[in-house]
């Protein structure tokens, strides 16, 4: 993580303001608060989709290895889908994988992530606990780094405006 991103993430973690006052978000005209909470949820700019794709791609690298090649579009792991689809007709159960921009996972998603770690452990012979911790850490860092990028982008654009 770059120094500016790390510093901003640390400020957000400690709930310290990044700016002296609120301003207008240059991408959506919403209020960009001095703590950058808005940047984490702003619908403009594409960062939410980039964050989604990065989390999906990272989780895909953790899947237990299977002989079939990955599917196109969103990666499909049986019983683990990131978009609402016709799961029932395919014999799968839809589990929403909800994460906060702080890297905290919903209880249902946390169970699925533990199952992923257990499946990887069963194949690799490693212990599931440390694998689960590593998986959660990697996902949290990915989520938080995209949140920081969104904040940095908006702050730079607001200063230049």
From TrEMBL:
Superkingdom of source: Eukaryota
Protein name: Uncharacterized protein
């Amino acid at each position: 993580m770059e120094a500016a991103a790390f510093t901003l993430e640390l400020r957000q973690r400690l709930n310290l303001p990044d700016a002296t006052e609120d301003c207008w978000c240059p991408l959506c005209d919403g209020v960009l608060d001095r703590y950058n909470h808005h940047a984490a949820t702003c619908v403009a700019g594409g960062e939410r989709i980039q964050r989604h794709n990065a989390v999906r791609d990272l989780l895909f690298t953790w899947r237990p290895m299977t002989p079939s090649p990955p599917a196109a579009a969103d990666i499909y792991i049986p019983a683990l889908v990131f978009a609402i689809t016709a799961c029932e007709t395919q014999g799968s159960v839809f589990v929403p994988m909800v994460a906060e921009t702080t890297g905290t996972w919903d209880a249902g998603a946390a169970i699925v992530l533990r199952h992923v770690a257990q499946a990887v452990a069963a194949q690799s012979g490693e212990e599931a606990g440390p694998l689960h911790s590593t998986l959660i850490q990697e996902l949290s860092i990915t989520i938080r780094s995209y949140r920081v990028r969104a904040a940095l982008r908006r702050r730079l654009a607001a200063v230049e405006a």
